[in-house]
Design goal:
- It comes from Hyalangium minutum.
- Belongs to the BolA/IbaG family.
- With about 80 residues, this protein is an alpha+beta fold.
- It has helices at about 5-15, 45-55, 60-65, 75-80, and strands at about 20-25, 30-35, 70-75.
- The protein has a single domain (about 5-80), classed as GMP Synthetase, Chain A, domain 3 (2-Layer Sandwich), CATH 3.30.300.
- The chain contains 4 helices and 3 strands, in the order αββααβα.
- The chain has a 3-stranded mixed beta sheet with strand order 1-2-3.
- The termini are far apart.
Length: about 80
């Protein structure tokens, strides 16, 4: 069973300098949602951004330990435009 911090650490390892928030959406330790704000996303399509994140957890997806990871990805500029939450 995974926890949000383990997934967050993997994403940060692949995308240093990012802001990452991960939540367990079902309480079962295999369905998560992550929002990632990263300068590495600049100039990349949403699909390319998601591929960068998924690459960091691909082994867990392959074994089924991580069943689902819903993503919301933003460049720092996009995040600023969204304003306070």
């Amino acid at each position: 069973m995974l926890d949000p911090e383990a997934i967050r650490a993997r994403i940060l390892g692949a995308l240093p300098g990012s802001e990452v928030n991960v939540q367990d959406t079902t309480g079962t330790g295999d369905h998560f949602e992550a929002s990632v704000v990263s300068p590495a996303f600049a100039g990349k399509s949403m699909v390319q951004q998601h591929k960068l994140v998924y690459a960091s957890v691909q082994d867990w997806l392959g074994t089924g330990e991580l069943h689902a990871l819903a993503l919301k990805t933003y460049t720092p500029e996009q995040w600023k435009k969204l304003g306070p939450r």
